[in-house]
Amino acid sequence: MVSINQIQITGNITAAPELKAIGQGEEQLVVEGTVIHNWRLPEGATTAEKRAILPFKIYGAPARRFAESVSPKVNVLLAGHLETDEWKNGDQPRSRTFLLVRSFQYNSPKGEPVDAGETSQAKAKTKTK
């Protein structure tokens, strides 16, 4: 079955990811964090840059590997699909949408922070020089 709910996003980790155990064993680990994606707007726009902050979760053994190898401002590519947690707080329904990560890769060397204002286009130009 083909799924159209697939997302890839490149951005900088905003804070140290939080590794949690939700049971016994390696497969019961989850890491939660947020990634910020910057992009440049076309010429003539009122602002030069926009940002999107997206929460994400990684489960299982990859969660430990990710949590131990990234730090804030490290640039990563996250791939997965959107999911929504739903719960009730008293009588109020609540929800939170996040990226459930299936795979990831580092766009900057592990542990090497990048400038928060640097866009992926700027990095691509730097790499080709």
Explain what you see.
The longest helix has 9 residues, at 61-69. 16% of the residues are buried. It is globular, with a radius of gyration of 17 Å. 14% of the residues lie in helices and 50% in strands. Residues 116-129 have low confidence and may be disordered. The chain is mainly beta and 129 residues long. It has a single domain (7-128), classed as Beta Barrel (OB fold (Dihydrolipoamide Acetyltransferase, E2P)), CATH 2.40.50. The N and C termini lie far apart (42 Å). It has 2 helices and 6 strands; from the N terminus they run ββββαββα. The protein has a 5-stranded mixed beta barrel with strand order 1-3-4-6-5.
Topology:
Elements: E1 7-13, E2 18-21, E3 29-40, E4 49-59, H1 61-69, E5 75-89, E6 92-106, H2 120-128
Parallel strand pairs: 4-6
Antiparallel strand pairs: 1-3, 1-5, 2-3, 3-4, 5-6
Number of helical segments with 4 or more residues: 2
Mean pLDDT: 80
Principal-axes geometry comes out as: globular
Share of residues in strands: over 45%
What percent of residues adopt helix (DSSP H or I)? 10-25%
Could you list some keywords that capture this structure?
129 residues; single chain; mainly beta; OB fold (Dihydrolipoamide Acetyltransferase, E2P)
